[in-house]
């Protein structure tokens, strides 16, 4: 995402009052992306 687009999205999320839910979603997805179990890597590559 470009910096401008990222800032626009973040401003919209904050102004809508959705930041706490967004941040929970964001951190969960980041954790899943970084710390997949070894077995999960195999499933993703087959998809």
Question: What do you see in this structure?
Answer:
The structure is a single chain. The two termini are 24 Å apart. The protein has 3 helices and no strands. The protein has one domain (1-34). It is elongated and about 40 Å long. By secondary structure, it is mostly helical. It has helices spanning 3-15, 19-34, 38-46.
Please provide a brief summary of the model.
The chain is mainly α.
Given helix and strand content, the structural type is mainly alpha
Estimate the mean pLDDT confidence.
84
Tally of domains: 1
Span between termini:
24 Å
Rg, rounded, reads 15 Å
Largest sheet: none
Low-confidence stretches: none
Helical amount among residues, as a percent range?
Answer: over 70%
- The best one-word shape is elongated
């Amino acid at each position: 995402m470009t910096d401008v687009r990222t800032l626009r999205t973040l401003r919209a999320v904050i102004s809508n009052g959705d930041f706490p839910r967004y941040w929970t979603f964001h951190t969960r997805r980041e954790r899943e992306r970084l710390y997949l179990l070894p077995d999960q890597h195999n499933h993703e590559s087959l998809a």
